[in-house]
Amino acid sequence: MPRDTPYAGVAAIFTSALRRGEAPNVFEDGAQRRDFVHVRDVAAATVTACEKHLSGVRAFNVGSGTPRTVGDMARALADALKGPKPVVTGQYRLGDVRHITADSSRLRQELHWSPQVDFADGMAELARG
Length: 129
Description:
By secondary structure, this protein is mainly alpha-helical. 40% of the residues lie in helices and 8% in strands.
């Protein structure tokens, strides 16, 4: 996620709230879609691009290819941390983007990269962290 978007760092925000014993607050209806991708997959994609793309300058998007909702993330973390269920606030914030996902098809096709960390496994790992 770009760091200047309202949901940048949302996993850390939700995890911090849950570790304090608080329910994570989810804006809007919780159905905002994002393409959450594990940092190891991002690192692997970067290494792949450095090693396999040998000429010119080329941009590659990195994504899991499976959009999830912000509510999905909040529930997964609440379950993993055995914390309170998320609270969907219904509040809106100026500048929020309803849905934003990455198209990593070029990276997959040209460099034969694919994500390896499943969403549920990544959320469980974050909770253990």
